[in-house]
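Data deposition worksheet. Section B asks for the primary sequence of the deposited chain exactly as it was used as input, without tags or linkers unless they were present during the calculation. Section C holds the resulting structure in token form. Section D is free text for depositor observations; keep each observation to a single sentence. Incomplete worksheets are returned to the depositor.
Section A, Depositor: J.P.
Section B:
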Amino acid sequence: MKNLNLLLILLVVALAGCKTQKIAPKPVPVAQETVASPAAPAKVVKPASVVSKEERFSTASGETANYGSNRFFVIMGSFSVLENAKRLKETLKSENFSPVILMNESGMYRVCGNSYEQESAARAKIAEVRGTFPKYSDIWLLIRKQ
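Section C:
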């Protein structure tokens, strides 16, 4: 009986192990094709949006500024507390800006980095500052209300 069981097991293993396997055929090499790649599409860089506000303001007490007929102001920071505006002003001075603190009719202190007669010049300065100083990416444009 043991021999019969052993024979059956060997027969099953032999038959199971002899199954034919399907092997994928070897790929046939193809001649090298040269495909002209289309020119990469021009990358369109969308300018970052610039927030702008129009309001009346004056220079804060103790500040001197001669912005003449300039109507567009690059605002580096806005604060409800004068001491915070002064702190930013000192930081900006150390980074070679010429900041002035302005105060609007609501009592907010605006730290101005520069002012311009033309809006395009002010927007160009905003783009330049954002590119050079990423930490000032939230600067915005203040338009003097007439």
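Section D:
The CA atoms of residues 49 and 140 lie 9 Å apart.
The chain is about 30% helix and 25% strand.
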